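Milestone 3.1: sequence recovery, worked example.
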């Protein structure tokens, strides 16, 4: 479902502005100098927008109760008028006229918190062109003091808060995109801050988040680096200092095709495996207890094999995690049987060859015999195969099922709630998804097809509207969208709803990324010419609509 906003909507926030216990939306409209408020009906739909005047080119928006009347108010940054506008809420979904406060030059991101421990909300803003942050302390009546500025590095962008030195006072972290650092400002608890301590990142740090990544009860920092397409994690020492960054990036020439996570060595820590299409191997990195990862261990998939897709299961029933790989270059499916210590048997032990290059692979127990089966989709053909796996990890003869031309991705789920696994396949040629319902004996009904977008490339399964029925999400490569098809629980699906993605969305995964018990969507966008849209996270709002956060 789509809703009208003003011109070039950018910043967005969600809250209950009319006290009906239903979430509403506010959007900053960059080109028409307004903010739009869309009141929610509580069923996933929204009323037409109400527009309120902001400053010139409003960019980012945040929500808080600035006058202590228990009603939500709005603050918005105005990049070309060098101000923030505060709009006090009446509690019925409408707002008072804006009151403007001066900031630095080109204010961008805004965060709301209590920095001087007076129980009144304060405002902090990044100023992109004069390389400062502005702190505006709140009086608790909806008004604010004049700004106090602190110098940052070049081009401050991302902004977050946390208590980095365990003194119960809020501190600030800023990404300095122009000189590839983050700056940490330790707070004194009275609304003032020490000068920044800087820590190196990779190229052009942008998005920021704060959490405890190594379970030491200290907040750490994760940064997305837009230019080189990496993520940096900075773990915190005592007294607010940060360790040097941990950067995750594939080796030169790897051309990362797929990534998966599991515990490969039985230490209850999650490890990482990647399929390196360009270097013809798999890379496994084992996690340490401090949140860091060991050097990548390389497992060859063979000359010109070009591994494309991986899936994880215990294929030989020995209690260890094994890997199955679809090798696009050699038209083969290989297993790497796990030893339980993070290493694997050579792939040459078990393999099978195909007439066409495999693109996607999935695994599940389709015939309820306690053994896993593998389903494979191929490039430039119109069928897929199901292989039964023996307890030694080898494959039986395949059973072939027809698809529409050019299947690209496969995912598993129980789509008709009969406790039997089904599967779904995206097909490029007819721009659809095909659903195959399982009989529970390893065989499947003929496909049922549903329209997707232009050139669907990847599919994932989850319950996006909390009705205990499996739904589908699909990346549409040439539309720059993702499609969501809600399931009816009988094996059929509603017509797709589309949501904007970045340029050439290629892969999709799901998870609860903001701990609100709702499934969110993460999309990998192939075109790197727009560095802000290399990866996108779409956070879900009740019931099944999404907002788009571009974090690098």
């Amino acid at each position: 479902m789509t809703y009208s906003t003003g011109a070039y909507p950018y910043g967005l926030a969600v809250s209950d502005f009319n006290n009906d216990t239903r979430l509403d939306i506010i959007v900053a409209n960059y080109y028409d100098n307004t903010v739009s408020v869309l009141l929610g009906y509580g069923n996933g739909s929204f009323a037409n927008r109400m527009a309120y005047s902001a400053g010139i080119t409003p960019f980012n928006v945040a929500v808080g109760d600035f006058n202590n009347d228990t009603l939500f108010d709005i603050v918005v940054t105005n990049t070309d008028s060098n101000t923030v506008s505060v709009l006090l809420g009446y509690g019925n979904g409408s707002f008072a006229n804006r009151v403007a406060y001066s900031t630095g030059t080109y204010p961008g991101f805004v965060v709301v918190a209590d920095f001087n421990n007076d129980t009144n909300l304060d405002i902090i803003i990044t100023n992109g062109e004069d390389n400062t942050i502005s702190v505006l302390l709140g009086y608790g009546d909806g008004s604010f003091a004049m700004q106090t500025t602190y110098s940052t590095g070049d081009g401050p962008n991302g902004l977050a808060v946390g208590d980095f030195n365990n003194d119960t006072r809020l501190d600030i972290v800023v990404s300095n995109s122009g000189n590839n650092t983050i700056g940490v400002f330790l707070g004194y608890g009275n609304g003032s801050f020490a000068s920044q301590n800087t820590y190196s990142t990779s190229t052009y740090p942008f998005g920021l988040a704060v959490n405890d990544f190594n379970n030491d009860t200290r907040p750490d920092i994760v940064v997305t680096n837009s230019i080189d397409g990496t993520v940096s994690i900075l773990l915190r020492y005592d007294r607010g200092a940060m360790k040097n960054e941990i950067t995750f990036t594939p080796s030169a020439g790897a051309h990362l095709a797929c990534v998966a996570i599991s515990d490969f060595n039985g230490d209850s820590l999650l490890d990482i495996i990647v399929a390196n299409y360009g270097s013809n191997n798999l890379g496994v990195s084992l996690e340490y207890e401090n949140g860091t990862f060991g050097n990548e261990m390389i497992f060859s998939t063979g000359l010109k094999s070009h591994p494309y897709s991986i899936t994880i299961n215990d294929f030989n029933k020995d209690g260890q995690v094994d890997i199955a790989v679809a090798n696009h270059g050699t038209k083969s499916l290989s297993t790497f049987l796990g030893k339980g210590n993070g290493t694997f048997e050579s792939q040459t032990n078990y393999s099978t060859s195909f007439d066409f290059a495999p693109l996607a692979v999935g695994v599940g127990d389709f015939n309820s015999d306690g053994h896993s089966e593998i389903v494979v989709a191929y490039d430039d053909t119109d069928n897929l195969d199901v292989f039964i796996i023996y307890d030694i990890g080898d494959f039986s003869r395949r059973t072939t099922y027809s698809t529409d031309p050019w299947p690209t991705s496969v995912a598993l789920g129980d789509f008709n709630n009969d406790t039997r696994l089904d599967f779904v396949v995206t097909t490029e040629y007819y721009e659809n998804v095909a659903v195959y319902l399982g009989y529970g004996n390893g065989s499947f009904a003929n496909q049922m097809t549903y329209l997707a977008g232009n050139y669907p490339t990847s599919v994932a399964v989850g319950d996006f509207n909390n009705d205990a029925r499996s739904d589908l999400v699909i990346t549409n490569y040439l539309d720059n969208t993702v499609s969501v098809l809600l399931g009816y629980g009988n094996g059929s699906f509603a017509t797709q709803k589309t949501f904007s993605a970045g340029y050439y969305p290629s892969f999709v995964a799901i998870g609860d990324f903001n701990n609100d018990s709702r499934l969110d969507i993460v999309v990998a966008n192939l075109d790197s010419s727009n560095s802000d849209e290399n990866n996108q996270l779409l956070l879900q709002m009740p019931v099944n609509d999404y907002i788009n956060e571009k974090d690098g």
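The mean pLDDT is 79. The CA atoms of residues 386 and 399 lie 5 Å apart.
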